[in-house]
Amino acid sequence: MTTGALATKLVRVGKALGWIEKRGKNKDQGYAYVQAVDIFVRVRAELAIENVAFTWSVTDYHHDVVHRDNKSPQFTAEIAGDYSFIDGDTGDVITGRFVGFGIDTSGKALWAAQTGALKYVFIGNFLLPTGDDPEATEHGGETAAPAVRNGSSPVPPTATKVTDGKISTAQVVKLKASLGDAGLKSDAQKLQFVSTILGHPISAKQMTSDQMDQVLAAIIEQPLVLAAAVELA
Fold first, then answer.
1. Residue 69: what are its φ and ψ, rounded to 5°?
2. Nearest-angstrom CA–CA distance, 38 and 22
3. Dihedral class, residue 162 (left if φ above 0, else alpha if ψ from -120 to 50, else beta)
4. Distance from CA of residue 4 to its chain's centroid?
């Protein structure tokens, strides 16, 4: 059962989100893409302003391993599930279904399927434009920062960007403390989590501010990946 009140809130969320910049870049083929963490952080902030909760659950999945001659095996995962927007003021609910597919050579296909599915749930529901700023012509052809409201931030607020290079010693300490507070006590657990989120092993001292933001946001936004790392012996 839904009413116009919840729909009106979601319209305001979509209007406030505006466009999402393509900050990710594929290392092999060089194309730019919208990072899931950028969408999740922006959407979460705007839903919180409207007092709207988002829940999701996987109801069906299938995984497989494809063995290839002289190559690493490929892991595939197909999932389906349900999601809901819930109005914290009225209790009204809008529900939907999602599907996802992931393929990987290092066992992360399920996480890729889940992350990709949720990413496009938000892109589809809020009709999010991605890529170049649609209002760039008003700024001399340059891309302008996405608009924010009520103090919400388009990027995770947990790390301050000071340079485009490696993070500072203070940021390294903060990152390690955050990972420890999340339950990742051993170096192996931390490396597993970071490697899954960033796609390759990397130490804290080698990270850029953008990578640190992505890891910190993933502690909240990707609980299944975090749980898998915590359970690592």
1. -65, 130
2. 9
3. alpha
4. 29
- Gap between the Cα atoms of 56 and 50, Å rounded: 18
Which amino acid does the sequence have at 162? V
Count the helix, strand and coil residues of the chain and give each as a percent rounded to the nearest 5. Answer: 40, 25, 35
* CA dihedral sign, ordered 58, 61, 39, 176: positive
The Cα 42–Cα 19 span in angstroms is: 10
CA 45 to chain centre: 13
The structure's pTM equals: 0.58
pLDDT per position as a tens digit, 128-169? 887 654 444 343 444 444 555 654 444 444 333 334 478 888
Domain boundaries defined on the chain: 156-233
* Closest to 116 measured CA to CA, from 34, 175, 210, 227: 34
Q: How far apart (Å, rounded) are the C-alpha atoms in residues 53 and 41?
A: 14
